[in-house]
Amino acid sequence: MLGDAQRLTQALMQLAANAVRHTGDGDTVEVGSAVRDGSVLLWVRDTGPGVAPEDHERIFERFVRAGSGPRPVEGAGLGLAIVASIAKAHGGTASVHDPLEGGAQFVLDLPLRPVIDAGATTVVLPAAEAAR
Ligand SMILES: Nc1ncnc2c1ncn2[C@@H]1O[C@H](COP(=O)(O)OP(=O)(O)O)[C@@H](O)[C@H]1O
Ligand SMILES: [Mg+2]
After folding, report:
1. Partner of 89 at 20 to 30 A CA spacing, among 8, 14, 65, 117?
2. Residue from 13, 14, 18 to probe ligand 1 pocket by mutation (most atoms less than 8 Å from CB)
3. Count of domains in the chain?
């Protein structure tokens, strides 16, 4: 795929930082990737408390911080909004899922074919053309 390595790294770092923040001793944080059905999937998964179903969509909005209990002062509820915008700039999506074993799995689903975000207009090139 064609992607902005710096921005994708930034997105994964945001997800990893969240995962670390929401886990403790004995928990695990896992980072993975796969190619499936024309998509590149990049995910960060943790065995922390997970995200309530009613919060699955809204945590990707700006300034939304879900859940209760103590939380560190850093973080303004912008991390996931940035992650979502990076996914969108690549023509893809960011979402959170509930693994059967518990915890949270944040997934970036990005199209394999190159998408060039030219600001207002998004130009999608067929792979063969982009390879030229
Ligand atoms: N790995 C995670 N496990 C559980 N909840 C999470 C996780 N990552 C994010 N969240 C929830 O989503 C909210 C928004 O995350 P984010 O946009 O990164 O903001 P911030 O980290 O500044 O709170 C968090 O406040 C938290 O409620
Ligand atoms: Mg965050």
Report:
1. 65
2. 18
3. 1
